[in-house]
Write a structure and sequence with these properties.
Pfam families: Lactamase_B. This is Glyoxylase, beta-lactamase superfamily II. It comes from Micromonospora peucetia. There is one protein chain. By secondary structure, the chain is an alpha/beta fold. The protein has one domain: Metallo-beta-lactamase, Chain A (4-Layer Sandwich). 28% of the residues lie in helices and 22% in strands. The protein is built from seven helices and 13 strands. A seven-stranded mixed β-sheet has the order 1-2-3-4-5-6-7. The chain has a six-stranded mixed β-sheet with strand order 8-9-10-11-12-13. A hairpin with a 5-residue loop joins β8 and β9.
Amino acid sequence: MAFQHLAGRVWVCPGDPDPASVQAGVALVADERGSVLVDAGQSPAHAREIQAALRAAGLPPPRWLVYTHHHWDHVWGACAWPDVEIVGHVAGERLLREEAARPWSHRYLREQVRADPRLGPSFRARALAVDSWDGFAVLPPTRTFTDGLELPVGVTATHVGGAHAPDSTVVAVPDSGVLLLGDCYYPPPAHLRTPEDGPDLDLVRRLLTDDIHWYVASHGPPLALAEARAAVAAEA
C-alpha cells in the first residue's frame, strides 16, 4: 500500500482491487496549513496501513477527514484517526448515528447474515476487515453541510446524492484539477440492487467539465478527462 502523486496537492492511495474485500481507496490533499483526508479506510487496521503509507511518503497527517458517504468501507477507519475534524453531509450524519448504535461484533454480523443472506458479501468483508472490536466505534461527522462546504485550504465538498447513497458527496481540489467522486455514480449496494440498476451516467455527465483534469472513483484508477468521457460514452 502506497500513496501515489496524482496532480498538484493531491495524492491517492488505492484500495484493494479484489471486489470481495470491499476496500475503498483514499486521497490526501497535502497542505502546510492542514491536510485533508478523503475517506477514512474500511477499518482501524486499514487506517493504520494508510497512516504508515503517509509516513513513508513524507506526507503530513490530516487535519480534516471528509466522508464521501456513509458506507462502512469509507468510514469504519475513522476511529483510528486522531485529532481530525470529520466533515460529512447531514443525511450521512443521521444514518451514521443509527449505525453507531448497533452492537457491532462478529456474532452480530453472523446474526444479521442469517436474518438476511443478501448481506453476506458485505458482512463477511467487514468480519475480515476488523481484526479487533476493542475500541471500535462508528463516528458520525462532527461538522455537517447540506448543499456544500469549502474548507479553509480551498477544498470543496458538494452534495450530489444519487442511487448509491443519499449523502453522496464529491470533493474538488480546483487548483489541482482533481475531482474525488467517492461512489456517487455507482448503482445501489449489492444487497439493494435490482437487475435494472446501473451506473448513473447522467450524474457523471453533469460532473465532467474542462476545468477538472482528473476524476477519481473510490474503487477504480484515476481517469483523465478524456478517459472519463470515453468511459461514459462506452457505457451509454
